[in-house]
Design brief:
heterotrimer; B: ABC transporter involved in vitamin B12 uptake, BtuC; 2 domains; 74% helix; elongated; C: 13 helices; 76% helix
């Protein structure tokens, strides 16, 4: 990474109390770097895609930023404070495949888990909470499935339930790990509409994303990485042929994805 | 005494038992490795515990037929039948219900064992039951074994080793790469069945020596030990066989050297001692070497990361990075690089640029996979390739 | 059967059996859902070395040293399993197998080496328990249940297991949400600030306490059976976690009562004179319940 290029793309995005700032984050799995020395700043009220080839460390970056995996070095700050103090303002949507959908729970039970930070150990689950669960389900078009066993849902429906749980957290920063992986077109549409609505309310959305063709349509900002950061910034500035070549090693048929033209 | 036992000089029966135990240990070590690599080590626990009702029912049946209820071949046959039923129950629960294999194993293990205990208490009330001695099957008991039984165990050892030898190839393939095994036309369920049959055979042969509670140790501990020494399947298999055989030999010999030294626990404890030693000292995955490697590695990563920050004039936030740079004389306490630090930083920065190009170049894809943030590109590519990359970092117009 | 016969000889063992079964089944629900069902198996095997060491150290078979010894052994086993699987990078199942067999073998060897003649300490007792021996000598009939003098003579095992069963139920209620959340989605749970590792460890320790106390009264084999069979059967009856726990308590209770009755009176129906092992019969009945649930349970697949 040369310093000149780095400066080019980070000028306006540095913000001391931004929703999410990552500094020098390095994670190793079994002595192989998953992410190496990544600095990144995510801007408030923007939707950012984290893209990169398979094994580029996209999910690991999110997990390390959230403290789910332990980084070898580096730090995360959330709204200008350490992560621990700001957990209430974060909502996380894990990969759908990371849980056992055979767990004995109904759709509404899972969405209700999003209320844990509010309810605590013994707080009473009131009618108002129930209404919130229902309205979160309605926002993702799943209100008719509230009593359904989660194992009976399709992949797209499971993903929507996960998103509804994040909505129930009523957070300011939404971190999503591959929200569009293996979902049907209708679900993809529904999810992106919800995310854009959140952005329009001034919330910050960060999603690990694998489909380069939809990046310009769906997102405002992009962080391209391949173990190290390749480029960062608004889609117009950072989602360039050059950056993608660097990240994907020229293995990409560029014609397919319609990147932003390189402007000198 | 122990020396006499180790060198098979303690009489015919003790020698036969020891030889049988060694063969059993080798077979169990090898078979256990396949189980272990398939992550099904504890299926053997279900099989072992499921032998108990069979032993008891065989005793009752033989007594009812007017035979000697204690006849070892009959008891072992009974144990094999009920262990097989236990295995079927595990499969049935996994296939028929949403329960996972670990729950099925636990259920079968505990229920069969419970039922076995019920049978044992029935036997105790029979007129012939008092001296049945079936408790020996719980913990193993080789003391006072008759010649025929010792021979049976030795022969059993030969048979299980031979079976393992016959089926070693398909099992290795399946353990190593199930998908490939399928494409080669192997039915993985068939091989799994063979594997389970072997486990069953080993359990039955080992029942009298180590007992049904501890027989799983012979299947699990040697393979776990071997795994600490190597990452290669073929070596793990051989090592596990060796560790299994060695444990059985030492354990059986020590046990034969004195009264009050039960064979089963001694074999298990020998195996565990080997495991504990390996856990600490094995060079591949042992604790000490792993800890040293990790420390060295963490240092390397921090220094490299610090150097890259220095090269780009970026601040260093991580206290450990700063401390290490200081220790190496690469930076002053305030984070300003020393002369040596500047030179190392420039080299590291240059190397990182080379990597960046190499990783973006399809023909270097294989080499690029070795990127770990520490290895220098010069160690991976030829000097011609490096020169070609350097030319791309400093484009001609910059040089002119 | 009259109260004069039932209350002194059958009431206490039956209650102890029921409470032990419930105390184990409660944490067992979460162990089964977390695919840690066999941790119960491991814990109950290492109880033997625990009591043997306690005996060797104290020279007596007093209850408290035994309980402490087995609790320590359970914790040592849990630490070893975790250490072996983490640092040796060996899958947890195999790490369990290594740990409990080795500790069990150590216990057996130590038992053979130490002079236990004259004291009632043997492997079979550890495995099978001795539920039948828990008689209430001060009781004369149903009236004894309201007689303070008689009540003060209740076997301590009943009191201990009652306390532990109650504590298990309270812990489960108190930590219901974190347990459910971290069992279903550990990553998400840690992002809302739950100490997921501590929860996992706490569950195993709770299971160990239940196992050790129950073991003292009923032997280790029921402990394994009750950790797994009632929760597994309950999972096949319902798709809701709360209902699953209720079903598991019901199944544990039925297993204990029916098992105890069959063990005590069943053989008489077949013309045999002596009762069979109550612990064994309770485990067997729980297996029959599981088979029925696997065949007819509404959510079996």
């Amino acid at each position: 990474m040369d310093a000149q290029h780095l400066k080019d793309t980070t000028v306006e995005v540095t913000e001391e109390n931004g929703p999410l700032t990552i500094r020098g984050l390095t994670v190793f799995y079994d002595q192989k770097p998953a992410v190496f020395s990544i600095d990144a700043t995510f801007r408030k009220g923007r939707m950012t895609a984290i893209v990169g080839p398979n094994g580029a460390g996209k999910s690991t970056l999110l997990k390390a930023a959230l403290g789910i995996v332990k980084p070898l070095s580096g730090s995360t700050s959330v709204f200008g404070a350490p992560l621990e103090h700001m957990r209430r303002r974060i909502a996380y949507v894990p990969q759908r495949a990371s849980v056992d959908w055979d767990f004995p729970a109904r759709v509404s039970d899972v969405v209700g888990m999003g209320l844990y930070s509010e309810l605590g150990l013994l707080g009473r689950f009131t009618g108002a909470h129930g209404k919130r669960v229902t309205s979160c389900l309605a926002r993702v078009g799943m209100e008719d499935f509230a009593d359904r066993q989660i194992g009976q849902l399709s992949g797209g429906q499971q993903q929507r339930v996960f998103l509804a749980r994040a909505l129930a957290q009523d957070a300011d920063l939404y971190l999503l790990d591959e929200p569009f992986a293996g979902v049907d077109a209708a679900t993809e549409r529904a999810i992106i509409d919800v995310l854009k609505a959140l952005r329009d309310e001034g919330k910050t959305v960060v999603a690990v994303h694998h489909d380069l063709t939809t990046v310009p349509d769906y997102f405002d900002d992009v962080l391209i990485l391949n173990v190290q950061k390749v480029s960062e910034g608004s889609v117009e500035d950072a989602f360039t042929q050059d950056a993608l070549n660097k990240a994907y090693g020229g293995r990409l048929a560029m014609a397919e994805i319609d990147p932003v033209p390189i402007t000198a | 005494m122990v020396f006499d036992a180790l060198t098979f000089q303690l009489g015919y029966n003790a020698t036969l038992v020891t030889v049988g135990a060694i063969l059993l240990g080798v077979a169990a070590g090898v078979t256990g490795t396949f189980l272990f690599l398939r992550k099904r080590a504890l299926v053997s626990d279900a099989i072992a515990h499921a032998t108990l009702p069979g032993v008891g029912l065989a005793f009752i049946a033989m007594t009812a037929l007017g035979l000697d209820g204690r006849a070892l071949p009959g008891l072992l046959a009974g144990s094999a039948v009920s262990a097989f039923l236990g295995l079927l129950c595990v499969q049935w629960l996994v296939n028929r219900t949403r329960l996972t294999e670990d729950a099925a194993i636990g259920a079968v293990l505990s229920v069969f064992f419970s039922f076995g205990i019920v049978i044992l208490t029935i036997i105790q009330t029979l007129p012939t039951g008092g001296q049945a001695g079936l408790e020996g099957f719980l913990l193993g008991s080789t003391a006072g074994m008759i010649f025929a039984d010792a021979s049976l165990i030795a022969v059993g050892g030969v048979i299980v080793v031979a079976l393992v030898f016959v089926f070693r190839r398909p099992m290795t393939l399946l353990a190593f790469d199930p998908n490939y095994a399928e494409t080669r036309g192997m039915r993985s369920d068939h091989i799994d069945l063979i594997m389970m049959a072997l486990v069953l055979a080993i359990t039955v042969v080992g029942l009298k020596i180590v007992g049904l509670i501890m027989i799983v140790a012979l299947l699990i501990i040697p393979s776990a030990t071997a795994r600490l020494w190597s990452d290669r399947v073929d070596r793990v298999v051989l090592l596990a066989g060796a560790f299994g055989g060695l444990s059985a030999w030492v354990g059986a010999a020590v046990s034969a050297s004195a009264p009050d030294l039960p064979t089963g626990p001694l074999i298990v404890l020998t195996a565990f001692a080997l495991f504990a030693l390996s856990m600490f000292f094995a060079p591949a995955r042992g604790l000490i070497s792993g800890f040293m490697r990790h420390r060295r590695f963490q240092r390397g990563v921090h220094i490299r990361q610090g150097l890259l920050s220095l090269a780009q004039g970026l601040p260093i936030y991580e206290p450990l990075t700063l401390r290490l740079l200081k220790e190496e004389g690469l930076a002053r306490p305030d984070g300003v690089p020393t002369e040596a630090g500047r030179a190392r930083a420039a080299r590291a920065h240059w190397d990182e640029k080379r990597w960046e190009i190499a990783r973006a170049t399809p023909e270097h894809e294989l080499a690029a996979a070795r990127y770990d943030g520490l290895t220098r590109l010069e160690e991976v590519l030829t000097s011609d390739q490096i020169a070609e990359i350097d030319a791309r970092i400093a484009p001609p117009e910059a040089a002119s | 059967m009259t109260g004069a016969e039932f209350v002194p000889f059958s009431l206490v063992p039956m209650l102890v059996g029921v409470l032990a079964a419930i105390a184990c089944a409660l944490p067992g629900n979460f162990l089964v859902l977390r695919r840690q069902a066999l941790i119960g198996d491991a814990i109950s095997h290492v109880v033997l070395p625990g009591i043997v060491v306690a005996f060797v150290v104290t020279g007596t078979i007093a209850t408290w040293p035994m309980l402490i010894g087995s609790a320590v052994a359970a914790l040592v086993a849990v630490a070893l399993i975790e250490g072996i699987s983490r640092f040796g990078r060996i899958e947890p199942g195999a790490a369990m197998g290594v740990t409990f067999t080795a500790m069990f073998a150590g216990g057996v060897l130590l038992l053979e080496q130490s002079d236990t003649s004259g004291v009632h300490l043997d492997v079979e007792h550890a495995l099978f328990g001795n539920l039948e021996s828990l008689i209430w000598l001060d009781a004369t009939g149903w009236a004894s249940l309201i007689d303070p003098a008689a009540l003060s003579g209740l076997p301590e095992e009943l009191i201990r297991i009652s306390v532990v069963a109650l504590v298990m139920a309270l812990l489960l209620l108190l930590f219901w949400r974190p347990l459910a959340l971290s069992t279903f989605d550990e990553n998400f749970a840690s992002t809302v600030g739950l100490p997921v590792r501590a929860i996992a460890l706490g569950l195993v320790i709770a299971a160990a306490i239940a196992a050790v106390t129950a073991f003292d009264a009923v032997g280790s084999i029921i402990v394994i059976a009750m950790f797994i069979c009632p929760p597994a059967a309950a999972r096949l009856m319902t798709n809701r976690l709360g209902m699953q726990v209720v079903w598991s308590v019901a199944f544990a209770t039925v297993s204990a009562v029916v098992g105890f009755v069959l063990a005590g009176y069943g053989p008489l129906w077949f013309g045999l004179e002596n009762a069979v092992s109550a612990a064994g019969m309770i485990g067997t009945v729980s297996g029959v319940i599981l088979v029925l649930a696997a065949t007819f349970g509404p959510t079996r697949k």
